[in-house]
Every structure is written in structure tokens, then in C-alpha cells.
């Protein structure tokens, strides 16, 4: 019988495509540079990450803080490698994202099939042929709305949808007034009033021309409206002395903590951006990654929900076929983990805890 490792990697290969004082003043020592933040190798804690290969994506957390991820054909537990869902791969199915919910079980985004699946039953939760993918998705706190992002890489385009679970109605979000391109990372604020979405523009003839994060106001019906630019990522990173354009940095997965700090993987750049959204973007910080060069996704989990887990392609592997996992100890639990505690805390979401 073939090993799980062999089966998962075989599925991958089969899948589709940062004033001088008065001269007389007493000299004051210059302030020290901010401490370098580093997410360390966490493979010993999450050995399952090594099984998913270069296509590792879609990190998610359950109510107990256990971590999971997907590749094109499998969703597995990162701690014990248990398979939660297996798909056919090929051109008809390509897992790209996952989220745990209190009400609907574990949902998996199937980009090639334009649908969300329920992992436990391998059945459709929602499907919409007009959606480009979905690439990633996020769930409202009361679980009545699901927001989905997608892209067409070659066409340099993206889309945004909101799915009303009660009426089973998917609606395309109007993006008039802003120039968006490939849309990928997506996350709600802890109070569900703001939606953050990445947009990345391909360069000509190759590379990257730019990358941004837009924020939308969520109206009373749950629709994203009034999009505005939240961060020009290339400009902000250049202010920190970094050169994202040379590296071809492409923003990928995003997650929030329970107090509004946004974490974003900087794919092809070996870093994560951490931004307290209550403060100016210039105060954002960069987290270096110990073993990952191409981070694809991340989530906050662990027993107290405060461990930031980052997944992606390994630095040490020049073939670009293996997957690694790093972790960083944060001070606040994640939004997703916190929302999952409602059933454990008698109706309290635990915000401010």
C-alpha cells in the first residue's frame, strides 16, 4: 500500500495548474533599531506540513487550536497528518483554502470547481460557476455570510463575492471606483465592519508591477461597499529598506487577530507583514521566516490561539517542491480561533480576553 506521503505528492503532480538638538545640547544615544521578529522552524510540532509539497495552501484552525492545511488534492492535520478530505485533482478540482465553522463543519475552497465543500461529507456547501475560483474565503462572526476572493492569473483579473448562507445566494461585489487586479488574501475585521482584500498586478512582460490591500465597509445587509486603498504594499516595504519588486513579491493569505492586527504572507519574499489596523500602515512590522521562502498562507492557533503558523515552500530546497512550516508567538488570539470559542463559552465570542 502506498504511503500517505506518496499519495499526496502524486496528487500534487496530477493537479492543474518594511532632530538633532541644539549644538550645545548633551549628546543622546540614537534609539536602537527595532528588534528583528522571526518565525522559527515548527516542523517538529507540525510534521504534516512536510507532506503537502509545493502546493501547500489554505491554513486553518479548529476550536481546540489544532492546525490544518491543503494542497490541490488533500486537506490534512498538520500535527498528526490525518486526512480530512481527498479530491480527484486534475483539471476539475483544486483545493486552495479551508476554514472551520461552528455551524457547517469544515469548509474547503475548491478553486477549479468554483465551490465550497463540506470536508466531513465531501459534498457541496455552495457553488457558483461565475466565480473565478474561489482562491480564499472568510466567514462572518455569526456565520451568516461568507466572503470569497478569486483570480485569473493570466488575465491579471480578480473578483470578490459574498454568499448569504440563509438565502443560499451568491452575489458578485461591484468593484467600481478602484483599480483591482488579481484578488487573493481576504479577511474580516473582528467586528465584521471591514473587509480586507489583496490585489496584485502582473508586470509586463513578467514579474510584478504592484500589490495593494483594499478595505471595504460592510453595510447593514452584509455587502462590501466603499472600497478604499488601505496599503500600497510595495511603497510601504520600500520605506523599510526592502525591495519587494525585485523579488516579485505577491501578497497571499491573510488572517486577523481578535484585536484587529492583520497578518499577511508576502509570497516570493520570505516574510510576513504584521499591521495593527488601528494604526497607520507605516507602523507595520515585518516578520522574517526561518525556513520558508515562498509563504502562501497562515493562521493563529495553538492551545490559546496565539501561535502564528506560517506555511509555504522551503528555503533550503532549490527544486521548489517541498513544504515547510514556521511559527511565531503572538500576544493576542486569532479572530478565527476566537470566533470558534462561542460554543465553548456559553455564547461569548471572547473578544477583549
From TrEMBL:
Database matches in SUPFAM superfamilies: Calcium-dependent phosphotriesterase
Signal peptide: 1-15
Aminoacyl-tRNA synthetase as UniProt keyword: no
Domain SMP-30/Gluconolactonase/LRE-like region: 122-310
Gene Ontology molecular function terms on file: hydrolase activity
Keywords: Hydrolase, Signal
Record flagged with keyword Hydrolase: yes
The protein, known as: SMP-30/Gluconolactonase/LRE-like region domain-containing protein
Species per Swiss-Prot/TrEMBL record: Sphaerosporella brunnea
Amino acid at each position: 500500500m502506498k504511503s500517505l506521503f506518496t499519495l499526496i505528492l502524486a496528487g500534487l503532480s496530477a493537479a492543474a495548474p518594511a532632530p538633532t538638538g541644539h549644538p550645545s545640547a548633551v549628546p543622546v544615544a540614537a534609539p536602537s533599531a527595532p528588534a528583528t521578529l522571526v518565525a522559527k522552524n515548527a516542523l517538529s510540532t507540525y510534521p504534516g506540513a512536510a507532506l503537502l509539497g509545493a502546493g501547500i495552501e489554505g491554513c486553518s484552525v479548529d476550536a481546540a487550536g489544532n492546525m490544518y492545511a491543503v494542497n490541490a488534492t488533500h486537506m490534512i492535520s498538520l500535527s498528526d497528518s490525518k486526512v480530512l478530505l481527498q479530491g480527484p485533482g486534475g483539471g476539475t478540482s483544486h483545493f486552495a483554502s479551508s476554514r472551520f465553522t461552528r455551524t457547517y463543519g469544515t469548509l474547503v475552497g475548491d478553486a477549479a470547481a468554483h465551490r465550497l465543500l463540506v470536508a466531513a461529507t465531501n459534498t457541496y456547501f455552495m457553488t457558483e460557476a461565475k466565480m473565478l475560483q474561489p482562491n480564499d474565503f472568510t466567514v462572518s462572526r455569526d456565520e451568516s455570510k461568507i466572503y470569497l476572493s478569486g483570480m485569473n492569473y493570466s488575465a491579471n483579473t480578480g473578483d470578490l463575492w459574498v454568499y448569504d448562507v440563509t438565502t443560499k445566494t451568491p452575489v458578485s461585489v461591484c468593484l467600481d471606483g478602484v483599480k483591482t487586479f488579481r484578488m487573493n488574501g481576504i479577511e474580516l475585521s473582528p467586528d465584521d465592519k471591514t473587509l480586507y482584500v489583496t490585489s496584485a498586478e502582473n508586470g509586463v512582460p513578467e514579474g510584478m508591477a504592484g500589490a495593494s490591500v483594499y478595505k471595504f465597509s460592510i453595510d447593514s445587509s452584509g455587502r462590501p461597499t466603499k472600497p478604499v486603498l488601505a496599503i500600497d504594499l510595495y511603497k510601504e516595504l520600500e520605506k523599510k529598506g526592502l525591495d519587494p519588486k525585485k523579488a516579485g513579491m505577491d501578497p497571499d493569505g491573510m488572517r486577523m487577530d481578535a484585536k484587529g492586527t492583520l497578518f499577511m504572507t508576502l509570497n516570493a519574499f520570505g516574510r510576513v507583514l504584521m499591521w495593527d489596523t488601528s494604526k497607520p500602515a507605516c507602523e507595520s512590522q515585518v516578520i522574517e521566516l526561518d525556513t520558508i521562502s515562498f509563504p502562501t498562507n497562515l493562521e493563529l492557533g495553538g492551545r490559546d490561539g496565539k501561535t502564528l503558523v506560517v506555511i509555504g515552500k522551503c528555503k533550503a530546497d532549490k527544486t521548489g517542491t517541498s513544504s515547510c512550516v514556521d511559527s511565531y508567538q503572538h500576544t493576542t488570539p486569532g479572530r478565527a480561533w476566537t470566533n470558534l470559542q462561542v460554543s465553548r463559552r456559553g455564547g461569548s465570542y471572547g473578544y477583549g480576553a
